[in-house]
Amino acid sequence: MELFVEEKMVCQNGTVLDKRGMIVGKTIDAEDSKNYVDSFDYDRRTLCRYLNDIQELYPHIVKIKENPTHCFRLDSASTIFHKFLSSSDDVSWLIQLMYESDKNLFAKLEEDTKERLANISKGKRDIFLFQNPYFDELIEKGKKQIFNSLKLAIKNNEYRDIYYHYNQERFIKNAQCLKLVFMDNNWYVATASEERGFLLLRIAFIERVEYSQKESYQESQLNKYIDYFKTMQNPMTRFGVEKQKAHLLASPKIAKYFKPNMKKFLFSQNFIKENSDGSVEFTLDYTHALEILPFIKRWLPDVEILSPQSLQDNLIQDLKKYLK
Question: pTM surpassing 0.70?
């Protein structure tokens, strides 16, 4: 006999189990625990088989002993998270980032874990500073429902009708939802449609998302976008456009930032050589001038465009407009 109370089960022997029949944080031994065998009215072999089946379905259930007995433990979400914290040298930066992104997050965890994480976050706030928490844009602009709708469409390889407003309203009909992309502190969704081709839409400018007449597309249709997603540098990277190569020179003043042992600013950045005067030559690939010109302008006057001339002309044009 079992009695279910608030998604928990009380056995004849008084043991309170999770709705999946496991004691959170404790263990069940399929061979030796006579109480469980009697409570469920199964023989040991049947109980062992059922527990094995359940363990395969639920990743929270961990088999901690194989032979000669079969012993299982149910780990709660807070237990798993606690293990992660305990096995890492310092994840306080991650905790704070999570806290800054969603201040209600810890309220969803069990009480002891919530207090532990809140204390970590509070104690480290004077050390770490996150100017751009990842999910602020979605929370502040009320885009969570749109975000979740797009996420579901991508998961199921589905189409959506998207109403997008940037300077003017645009309607993307039967858009294949391909990928959610976070870059430059903003969320984008990559879409493709027969009418408008490939688009990278900023979610902040999406007004609503609706189901399309078309339902789903074959997963194999994603193959042609694999290389693009691996090599895209910023929202200005164009799909299906042949890449050009810019040859650039960094002055001795900033050359150290462009040497091989430094972190790359853009995916395609490639060190060429260090000159006798201390300057460094490097290259960048681009599909559109706007993909790399903002980066070059940031380093002026210490970065010079050696080639191509067309990119140099674009830069000079922009500077002349500014000076006027």
Answer: no
